Amino acid sequence: MTSGGKYPLKNNFSVFINYPDRTTGISGLPKQPNGYYKEYVHPTPDIPRPGPQRIIVGQNGEAYYTNDHYKTFIKIR
């Protein structure tokens, strides 16, 4: 990711849209304009397709990790 290379999976380096949760109406990440966040697929061992792990990076450099396909986020930077 930091080298600028792409991991050859769908959605890698694509715009992440911070949709609100269907039940609570609350977004998982701080609210920002569309296009603010990019998502990167974090490879999951033994899964040949994109697994549930993602890293989401904001335009100001903040970064979040999710291991459950956007249900929860951990701020990592």
UniProtKB/TrEMBL annotation:
Pfam families: Ribonuclease
Keyword Metal-binding on entry: no
Matching Gene3D superfamilies: Microbial ribonucleases
InterPro entries: N1-like, Ribonuclease/ribotoxin
Regions that span the bilayer: none
Keyword Hydrolase tagged: yes
Record keywords, A-Z: Hydrolase, Nuclease
Any GO MF annotation of the entry: hydrolase activity
Superkingdom as given in the UniProt entry: Bacteria
Record-given protein name: Guanyl-specific ribonuclease Sa
